[in-house]
Fold:
Amino acid sequence: MTLECVDMEDVMPSAYKIAAPTRRIYAIACLILASVGFCGVAAAQTKQLTPVSIRFSWKLKGEFAPLYVAMDKGYFAAEGIDIKLGEGSSSQAALGSIVQGQDQGAWIPGVYAIQAISNGLPVKVVGLYNAAAPNVLLSRANNPITKPGDLVGKTLGHSIGDVGTTFIGVICRKNKIDCTSFKKVTLAAPARVPALVNGQVDAISVYTSNDVPILEEKFGAKAFAYLDLPKYGQRVMGASLIVSDAYLAQNPETVARMLRAIGKGFDDTIKDPAAAAKIMLKHWETPLSLEVVTKQVEALNAAVETPAGKPMGWVDPQAVEDTLDALQEANEIKGRKETKEYMDNDVGRRAPPS
Amino acid sequence: MRDLDPDLARKRHPAFGRASPWVFGLLLVLIWQVAVPLAHVSELTLPTPWQIVSRIRIDYRILARDASVTFLEVLLGFAVAIAVAVPLALAIFYSSIMERTFYPVLIALQTVPKVALAPLLVLWLGFGFAPKIVIGSLTAFFPIVIGIVVGLEMLEDEMVRLMKSMGASEWQTFFKLRLPAALPNIFGGFKIGIGLAVIGSIIGEYVASESGLGYRQLTANAQFDSTMSFAALVVISVMGVVMFYAIHALERTVTRLR
Structure:
């Protein structure tokens, strides 16, 4: 028996014959329609989520844990937000990015937002989580600086953007020491710690919520001494959420939802900093240990201040005033506006305090 | 009297000539390796070569991924630089009006520190690839333009007149005479440009990035991880050298074919 190839055209009734190119076209059309249908369904499901991106002031650190907790636990999604969190390269770049509309929120030390607003940038502080940035002056244990009077005759290493050393004038004024009795030398940011370790400067300013746990792990907890700057009167705004005036005016409900989600992230972070650190490390490629990141988170938590009866992230007008005082004292701003022009607590519909 | 041949030593001892840069490099590394612990310099201040190499070995996946990002930025920045530089150079060469118009602007642009431009580019273009490619191309394109223009201008007028006397069109003169003669200068510009494209891309990453070797170095500095910072620097250097020699190999191939 032999098999013969049969041309389908010969066996199919002519009425049902469809030319090969036409069949191909129909098949492709069906595929396209199916894809469009599928995409339509998917789009309908994701349509409810509003895309929001928050730009950080710097590279990842434990301070950002509450936002990752909120993302990881679905708090943003529950508020209808499709969140994207992005590392930044400076507070100024983050502010520029929200004004340009590339990002919707900036997570930066509030002092830079206050400075920018004083200089006319159209942004607002809508969430304040550290009314006083957790800065310390770090010195070597064999040459300790633990109170303002110890600064006399010393050399302070300062970098552009260093909150603690930029506003050292506040420490001088509130503790009645002469700011000219110690030297301040300007260094590139990466050079500060080596300069301290090598004895070229006597103190630098660092964050307890970032640098201190890392340095303690590297050099040992007993290697350094600390001067707690907020304790001695330097209260400038720390971790804050900033949005542009335009975005706030057009999307107040979205901003309120962001704040609620972040508030829940903070609540969980405060309840369990170790778990928050674990979540942070899921999203962070770093050689830092869980212990170090947990300490960063704990330091962030310790600096969270929420006035009684107010929701998490409520912007305290006194914090804005204190920051403006520090900025004027350091000649970082020429004039100041009314407090309400810097902040917005009325992006209300916040969840009531628990 | 001996002939004053600067290559005499290399010709007499070819193996030594080839090995000498490696020997010198190795000597520097050995001095560094020994001097750091002898001087009790901490790893935070200056890690030893062995610490850096060990770190590269441990974190090679991270560094390789970052290197691929930076490599792409450099390649695209370099390609954009060539795409802009070639027509501009030809316009400058063929038109004295264009030369008088563009040269001062080019020189002014070249003297602007790209570090100062970078934050503005991030403001305008965002945090993605675009600012890195633009900065890389801005940094690279000036030597490429100059290399092409100088190379085209170096040809003797007699040669051009000879071609024209034989009935060659400008097109033929360009491709059969001007371009081949200009190749050494053009590739010279390319070689300088590729190194500058690497620098430009890294500057862009310093200002705005979420990946890449410049990003890796910044995050390492933020975590007081000098060893990783140096490891990233080593990979940046190796990348620059490899790309330079790739252009060199391309030059040798092209000049052999002409």
User: Anything to note?
Assistant: Residues 136 and 197 of chain B are 4 Å apart (CA to CA). The domain at 48-257 of chain B is CATH 1.10.3720.10 (MetI-like fold). Chain B is about 85% helix and 0% strand.
